[in-house]
Amino acid sequence: MKIKRYKKFIIVMLISGLIGGMLGGFSEKISKLDLSFGGNMSNLISKVLFVISIIIIIYLIINTIYIKSNYMKVDLDNVPKVISRKVSNVILLSTVLSIIGLIGYAVVINKSFDKGSFYLIIVPTIILIIAAFVLMTTMKYSNYLNPNRKMYLYENEAEKKHFDKLDDGEKWVIYNCSYTTFNKMQKVYAAILVLIMVLSMFINVPIVACIMIGSIWIIQNLIYSFEARKYEKM
């Protein structure tokens, strides 16, 4: 019975040991390969982010046009799932596009110190402007479709006011999703740190990457712990 209880842990340890043994066996051969991106890393990241941004922008434009063409025709007492799903997807991807724009700023600023290509900062700036415009437009459609749960992005405590307007079922969904996200991110942080440690055996990985991931992991757990303690006295 005790073996079954720790079945997943044993399997993970066995797989980790197997992968570690394989990497150790091939480490000499792998170390001879030129896996360092060197100065091309910024170019590679810039191109990947640009391509992803173009794909997202095309998706956002198509879906925003669709929503704009149909949202006024909807019965507010029975909003089709197609419309509501497209609205939520556009809001999500607008946020993702904003994050990509901020990453683009970091890449361009880092790159500009070496080659003086600071003018490229216009690219992430345009991406952020597009993301903000699409997000504000879609929020207008969302407020129309959900008149009892309107949310104004730039209002003070907008998220809290929107949350208070939700019913108990919707709040339960948010609670559940939040905990699931928190729980799964523990595994994501651990996996990223393990990946960085493995990569550092073959390529030069900046120590700041480990520090940033570890710091975010610690901060997330501290926030959760402090918030949980607030309810212990209740």
TrEMBL record:
The chain crosses the membrane at residues 9-27, 47-66, 87-106, 118-141, 188-219. InterPro entries: DUF3169 (IPR021509). This is DUF3169 family protein. The keyword Transmembrane applies. It holds the Pfam family DUF3169. Keywords: Membrane, Transmembrane, Transmembrane helix. It comes from Clostridium estertheticum subsp. estertheticum. It comes from the Bacteria.
